[in-house]
Amino acid sequence: MTLGYSMQELMVVAGAREIRDDDVVFVGMRLPLLAFQLAKDTHARHAIGIFENGILRDKPAGDALYTMGDTPNIEGAIWTTSMMDIMAILQSGRVSLGFIGGAEVDRFGNLNTTYIGGREQVQIRLPGSGGGSDIASLSKRFVIIMKHEKRRFLEKVSYRTSPGFGDGGDWREKNGLKGGGPSAVITTKGILRFDSETREMTLNLIHPGVTIEEIIDNTGWDLRYAPKIENTKPPTKAELRMIRKYDPNGFWTRNGMR
């Protein structure tokens, strides 16, 4: 099935749609770099983007970004400061939306970026939290973006680096976490959200060309569904044109999932 766009381009659009006009966004790396650019060019012109390396900006960068520290992200920024100042904004509760990813995620939205196999039986040592745990704990909501594979989507992560809804229910409130938890999981196969009471991940949208069976086969627990599951709305021509303006060589969107 030829869609006319890559799955990563669809994920960028889905990420951009999560950004509201009044958001202060902790942007992160990879696809969220493009999602913020796209949202600023379309429906979220008043959103503010902050970057962990010490950058705060209120308009899209003028050129392609491969890291948050690239020159186009610094040029035109309204504040270039320290990581400490940026993390202080997060700690003060001013960040309304954060983007993060992980090697593993579980049914309550907890993320692992530290150990594959757990701390006692380490198979692979990963980079660790970075700012991920801070974003997950302190932003008012956060969006997870990652590849949808059974080895990544587990009933329980082998190490909890960044908290989602913990063990479900009111776990966050009981543990004193100020942030509201994950609001969406955008994957290479669909978009999942969380039940308002149990806080369990629920399939909400399926990307065009993907089947429910594919999603079930690539999820490590008995996945719940929303009452009505529809297809993710495809990117418009204008959205694709903007994405390709900011990623002209397809580094993020047409060379596989990074």
What does this entry look like structurally?
With 258 residues, the protein is of the alpha/beta class. Helices cover 24% and strands 22% of the residues. It is built from eight helices and 15 strands. The protein has helices at residues 7-17, 31-41, 71-74, 83-91, 132-138, 171-174, 212-217, 237-246, and strands spanning 24-26, 48-51, 55-57, 79-80, 97-100, 104-106, 111-112, 115-116, 124-125, 142-146, 153-154, 182-187, 190-194, 201-206, 224-231. The strands form three sheets. The chain has a ten-stranded mixed sheet, sandwiched between helices. The two termini are 22 Å apart.
The percent range for strand residues is 15-25%
Give the biggest sheet: 10 strands, mixed
Compute the gyration radius: what is it? 17 Å
Number of DSSP-assigned strands: 15
Sum up the overall morphology in one term. Answer: globular
Give the low-confidence spans.
Answer: none
Count every helix, treating DSSP H or I runs of 4 or more residues as helices. 8
Strand order in space, largest sheet: 4-3-2-1-5-10-12-13-14-15
Series of secondary-structure elements, N-terminal to C-terminal: HEHEEHEHEEEEEHEEHEEEHEH
Mean pLDDT figure: 93
The percentage helix is: 10-25%
Structural class: alpha/beta
End-to-end distance, in Å?
Answer: 22 Å
